[in-house]
Amino acid sequence: MNAPITAAEAADLLYREGHCLDTQRWDDWLALYCADAVFWVPAWNGPHELVDAPDTQVSLMYYTARAGLEDRVWRIRSGLSTASCPLRRTSHGVSCVIIAGESPEGVEVHASWTCHVFDPRQQAQHVFFGRYEHRLRREGAVWKIARKKIVLMNDRIPTLLDFYCI
Amino acid sequence: MNQQDFDPIGWAVVDDKARGVFRVHRRAFVDQNIFELERNRIFNRCWIYAAHVSEVAEPGQFISRDVAGRALIVNRDRDGRLHVFFNTCTHRGALVCRESRGKARNFSCPYHGWTFADDGRLVHQPIPASYSPECNRDGELNLREVPRFDEFCGFIFVNYDAEAIALADYLADAGDYLRMASQHGAGGAGMEIVNGTQTYCARANWKLLQENSADGYHADTTHATYMDYIRAREGAVLNLYSDKGFGRVRNLGRGHSVSESIWGTPWGRPCARAMPSWGDDIKAEMEAVFEAMSARIGRERADFICHGDRNLLIFPNLVVNDVCALTVRTFYPKAPDYFEVNAWALAPRGESQRLRDLRLRNYLEFLGPGGFATPDDQEMLELCQKGYQAHAGVEWNDISRGMLSEDGEAPAKQDELQMRTFWRRWRDLLAGQPV
Questions:
Q1: Tens digits of per-residue pLDDT, B292-326?
Q2: Model pTM?
Q3: By the CB < 8 Å criterion, does A108 face chain B?
C-alpha cells in the first residue's frame, strides 16, 4: 500500500525528472520509472479531443514498459541517429502540481509543463507545452513513476518529437 | 541578371539518358518563383488526396481540413451523397465549419448566420425579407463545391481544375497499388483511418519529402539505429528474408512510382508477416488472415500484399507507405523551405483488437515524428535544405543511380528511378504541359 505523498514531495519528483532530462542524465531519468511503467503521448482527434485508447487509436508515443524508454536512450547514445546528434538543448518548467487522486495503483499527480527546445544546428527554437499526468507508486522507500501521460497541446510538431523534449 | 533568372524551368533538370546522368538544380528547392509555379501548375491542376471514405462513412458525417492550401469540408449528406465544399461562406468568406470532424445537418456561418444544408443549399439568411428573390435564384450563393472530386478504392481526391482528366486515368498504373492498399484484412470489410492524426513540419522543401518517402538507398545509413534495433531484437531471421526476396522500383506513369519488395525488409508487417518476437499466437492469427485474403483475392495477390512492402508515390504529394504498418501521408509547402505533413494510419476495418494493437505499436516504432525512423528522415531533409544555401556554389543534385538500366526488367530498389519519374513529371508540368 502507498503511504501518502505530499504535493511538495510529488512536485520534487517531477522537478527532478525535468532536471535529469535537461542535463542528459539518462540513467538517473530511467531510474525514476518502475519496470512496468507506461509512457504515453496521445495524439489529438479534434480541437479538444484526445485519443483515449492507445491500443486502438494512434498516439504520438506509447510504451508499456521501461524497456521501451531504455531503447530510446540506447538510440540517442548509439551516435547513429542523425536526429539525435547533436541533441536539442532543452529546459523544462514544471508547475501547478496537484495530487489529483489516489487508487490502489498509486497516486495520481497532475501538473503543467513547458519545454523550451533549441536546435543548435538550425539555430532555431520552439516551446512545447502541455499537461502531465503521473501515477506514482512506492517501491520500497522511494516513489517511482508507474505511468506518465503527456498531453502535448501544440501538436504541430517541428521536425521531431523525443522523450527529452516534452 | 543571368539567364536563369528569366527561365526558372528549362535548366532545372538535366536528363541525359545516353550518358546515364540525371541532375536537378538545387535552386529548384529554394526559388520563390519556382514555388509559385508549383502552386499554379501542379497543385492547382493535379488530383490531390483529401480524405478517406471511412472518415465520412455515415450520413451527416463531415471532416474539415486544409487540402493544398484551401480549407475544405468533406461530408456525406443526409441522403448519403458525398460532397466536397470550399469551407467558406458565400456571403463574406468566414469558415462555416470550425470543427475538424463530426456530424452536422447544417453548416452555419458564425459571422452573420447564413446557414447551409449538408448538400450545400443556402437555407437561411437572417432577416430574409431584406433580400431580393433574385438573390440566390441560380444557387450561386450555395456552398461552393470544389471543381472536381472523385473516389478511388476509398481514397477521395479533389482537383481545383474543372478541366482535369478523370481520376482513374490520372492514377495510371498507381491505381492498382491503391487498390492493394484497400484489400488488407481477413474480412474484406474495407479499410478505415484509425483515429488520431500526426501533424508535423520541417524546414525543408516539399520535394525532399517526396524523394525521401520511397528512397530505398538511404535505409542502412539514415535508419541505422532502427535497423540495428530490429536486428538485435529479431536476430538471424533477417538473412532468411533476403534470400527469398526481391526488390525493385517501378515507374507507374504520370509521375507516380513505387518502390517495392517481397521479404526484403527486416521488419514485421501487421498484414501479415509476423516477427519472432511477436509470438506463436499472433503468427497463427496472421496466417489465418492470409488464408482469408487468399480466398478472397487469390493467393498470388494475397502473397504480394501480405509479404511485400510498398512505398507508393502518387504525384505530387500523396505517399502510401505499406511497410511496418500502413500509412497515408500528405504534405503541402507553405514556403520553398517549409512544409507540413498530415499522416494517418490506415487499417482493415474489423481487425481483431490484438492485431490492431500490434499494428499501432509497429506504426509508432518506425513512423511518425516520435518514431525511430521518421525523425532521422526529417532531420536529413533539413540538412539538405541547409546545404542548398550554397546552391550558387554547388549547383546540382545527382539522381543518376541505376539510370543506365532503368528501362530494363527490374530496376533495383536502391535505384533512383522513382525520383527521376517524379522530376520528369515536375519538369513537364512546370513547363506548362497538360496534366
A1: 999 999 999 999 999 889 999 999 999 999 998 99
A2: 0.94
A3: no
What pLDDT digit, counting tens, does each position of B174-212 carry? 999 999 999 999 988 899 999 999 999 999 999 999 999
In a domain? residue B82:
yes
A81 touches chain B (CB under 8 A): yes
Domain containing B199: what range?
A: 190-430
Distance CA B72, CA B68 (A): 10
Report the DSSP pairing between strands A142-152 and A33-42. parallel
CB of A74 less than 8 A from some CB of B: yes
Alpha helices in B298-389 (DSSP H): 299-307, 353-366, 374-387
Residues B344 and B414 in one domain: yes
Partner-chain residue, chosen from A46, A81, A121, that has the shortest CB–CB distance to B101: A46
The verdict on residue B385 lying in a domain is yes
A 36-65 → B contacts, CB under 8 A: 41-47, 51, 54-62
B2 lies in some domain: no
- Helix residue ranges, H only, B308-348: none
Please give the tally of structural domains in chain B: 2
- Does the residue B173 lie in any domain? no
For A164, which residue in chain B has the nearest alpha carbon?
A: B370
Q: Enter the C-alpha cell of residue B138.
A: 441560380
